[in-house]
Write a structure and sequence with these properties.
Helix content is 29%, strand content 15%. It is an alpha/beta fold and 304 residues long. Bound molecules: iron/sulfur cluster (SF4). Iron/sulfur cluster binds at residues 89, 91-93, 96, 98, 132-134, 164, 194. Iron/sulfur cluster is lined by residues 89, 91-93, 96, 98, 132-134, 164, 194.
């Protein structure tokens, strides 16, 4: 039988053209947050636009394809590895840099022992980042299977999730998930959220953040700077303030990865830098996310 949250990821059905990237929006989220205004910042993030027919941009903007050895694991940065154990997301963001990613057809859990072996052999790895897709689309049972194996490796100190689920399907933050911090007290627990606009908040998400904080998760946010969605000072100020009032540290403001069919979201670097300077002038330093972009081959994010 499905858990409660698994029923809530049921997507709307729609016949609008998807430009090769399926429209996926949970029904409850659509009912609550989609608007009749095509230019609404929620609609623009999740509903396709005919601008996606443009072929400029790159299929694999971060040059990740083929670098996951063993399958399901990416080792891009020193000290941490990225696990991509699911390709599923509850929602499809139209600007996603993995919209063309050729996820392996086979279940990456088949490679779990190889993944664990790789991490075990490299004692410089102290953080395991669960990415995807959205790692909170995995059941608690599957996460527990991975945690049990990781818990045998003494050099792992931190578990981090990159997820939109607490904002899209807040019921995913259930008692069993929250209990992981008690089950594995040896680790620091981090959730890097992905919130781009203050309009994304609704009451259930706020409750989910309160539960996560109480359960000892450190909450960070990574936004993407998106043209006509959040590329103005007022929105960015309100976003940082809304994050802070929900216990979340504004961590990064990313420039768009130049992915094919999403280049209409790109904000030019000079505008991004100007907005960043204005944010610095308007907010205390702890509310100003670092403006950065990813450059393939670099061992860290590149600050702008
Ligand atoms: S939730 Fe993340 S991985 Fe999934 S579509 Fe959105 S940006 Fe891409």
């Amino acid at each position: 039988m499905n858990n409660d949250w698994q029923r809530h990821v049921q997507s709307i059905s729609t016949s609008i053209p998807d430009y090769g990237f399926k429209v996926k929006i949970p029904q409850a989220y659509a009912d609550q947050l989609l608007s009749s205004d095509d230019l609404d910042p929620i609609n623009l993030q999740f509903l396709p636009s005919k601008l996606e027919s443009s072929q400029t941009g790159l299929i694999d903007p971060l040059d990740e394809t083929g670098k996951d050895t063993p399958k399901g694991l990416l080792h891009k940065y020193p000290g941490r590895v990225l696990l991509t154990l699911t390709q599923a997301c509850a929602i499809h963001c139209r600007y996603c840099f993995r919209r063309h990613f050729p996820y392996q057809q086979e279940n990456p859990f088949k490679n779990l022992d190889d993944i664990i072996d790789y991490i075990n052999k490299d004692s410089s790895i102290h953080e395991v980042i669960f990415s995807g897709g959205d790692p909170l689309m995995l059941s608690n049972q599957k996460l527990c299977t991975v945690f049990n194996k990781l818990s045998m490796i003494a050099h792992i100190k931190t578990i981090r999730f990159h997820t939109r689920m607490p904002m899209i399907v807040p019921s995913r933050i259930d008692a069993d998930f929250l209990n992981f911090t008690h089950q594995y007290p040896q680790w620091q627990w981090v959730i890097a959220l992905h919130i781009n606009h203050p309009k994304e908040w609704f009451e259930e998400c706020q409750k989910a953040m309160t539960k996560l904080k109480a359960a000892r998760f450190t909450l960070l946010n990574q936004s993407v700077l998106l043209k006509n969605i959040n590329d103005n000072l007022d929105t960015l100020i309100h976003l940082s303030q809304s994050l802070w009032s929900n216990g979340i540290i504004p961590y990064y403001l990313h420039q768009l990865d130049p992915v094919k069919q999403a280049m209409h979201f790109k904000v030019h670097d000079h505008k991004a830098k100007s907005l960043y300077m204005q944010l610095q002038a308007a907010l205390p330093g702890y509310l100003v996310p670092k403006l950065a972009k990813e450059v393939p081959g670099m061992l860290h994010k590149t600050r702008l």
